[in-house]
Amino acid sequence: MISVAATVLLGLLPLVAASPVAQPAAAALPRPVTTPSPVEWSPSKTRRALTDDVKSILGGLGSSIPSYVASGVPNFFQDFPVGGDVQKSLGLDDAQISALPTQVINVPPYANWTDQGWNVRFHGNVFKQPDIPQEKVDELADKFLIDTSVKDLPPNQAAQARNVTRSIFVLQQDDETVTFTLEPASGAGSSGQQGGSGAVTPGGGSQQIRFPVPTTDQGDYDGFVPIANTSGGLQPGNATSSIQRLNVYTIGTDTGNATAYLVPTEGVTMLSDIDDILRVTKIYQPKEGLLNSFARPFTPWLNMPEIYANLSKSLPNMHFHYLTTTPEQITKNYMQFIYAAYPGGSFDTRPLNFSDVSATLSIRKFLLTKVFQTFPKRKFILVGDTTNSDVMRGYPELATDFPGQVLCILLRNTSATDPENKFPYDTSGFKDLNTNSYMFFNVPDDLKNLDLANGQCVNATVKQEVTFGVQGLPFGLGKKGAGTAVFQKPSIFQAVLSAGLSVVFAALFIGL
Q1: For residue 295, what is the enclosing H or E element?
Q2: Among 39, 51, 264, 283, which is 20 to 30 Å from 135 by CA?
Q3: 3-state secondary structure 346-377
Q4: What is the pTM of this model?
Q5: Rg, C-alpha atoms of the chain
Q6: Is 99 within 8 Å of 191 (Cβ atoms)?
Q7: Contact at 8 Å (CB) between 129 and 103?
């Protein structure tokens, strides 16, 4: 039987591999401490009503649907621990917390060009990590596993599960001011590796930046901050097609390092989801999904790294932006995996102030909309998979909301190639889009030789059977053909059952 904690983790997948983050090679950092700020700041939190989305799926099926289905998400979906809960559960007093070193997760940012110059969107989280005895760590980790325990895992997986658990039970630090040192970056990605993308090293840009407002009550900071063109080494964003890299070091800790990407006003950006498209997650198999995210080393999906590497080489000025709605405190090594296997690029994660159900269900669209609004003259290629219901809804909405900006939508049809996937998906959002602007593909090789930058989105050899309705229904409710399931009108019982399962699945895994 899956424990409540395990089901919480299902809703929060993907988790991360948890070895220490590789740091960019650099001279010793200045070491002033992160200091409290006297400035008060109460950022607004994006919220979105869930009722209408759920009703649209369950519409007309009667009133005897269980409340946890009608509401879209079980109550325990909101129970991921944050600072105060962690302090209480571990029995820590204020003196013990004060003695802990301050750490920072600095998410690799993008920057845009305005009349005032370059503006970098710094975002991340400030926290402290308590020293939890291994016996207690194992006890906590076991609550996140199905039909196994940490002690039964291979040694490398047990170590990873323990590190992931430690990364969950951290103490977010509010009212902190964060200061960064910027330097030209010779490599791409958080670990500074060479050849990670086509971005270039600028001839200047070294400076210190103090984030202008303190962290939120959950340790988050997020905002655009102007940077100076020191020594004239940064090219204006409206006068270059090259992406410029700057290393970002957080003063006072060696845990908050990242790479910033200065993205030109015009060009092409690849906006990519991660789970079951860039890595093997199998969110549709709970036990496998947990192990793949909690204990096992991350594994790229087939030869997808080759596809992205070829794109980076053939389109050296392409901007790669990766998005996961995993909470920030467990994404450090998630980013490390991406930069080890894929071109370097900016990143988005779920801030901890998006903590309730409606906010979680809206966060992907919120973050993607921010990117579109930040770069109104850029073109976008959107990549995802059919198991993600907010991708299936949000991607076509972006094409409608920002006409002319979406070059291609590329979606892995997971159910077409993995018989273990019983996850239904809804293609109705694509009804009004040009059929040449999107493709449902089966394997990475389906993307080879496409001229994506010029809007060639469809591989003519890959059969497309889009019904503009619910497809891939479980229990044989659909008529199968060419890797898709064509929707047929089910009985009332079947409709309630499949719709209920669809909503529960979507609710549990919407954050992936």
Answers
A1: none
A2: 283
A3: EEEEECCCCCCHHHHHHHHHHHHHHHHHHCCC
A4: 0.80
A5: 23
A6: no
A7: yes
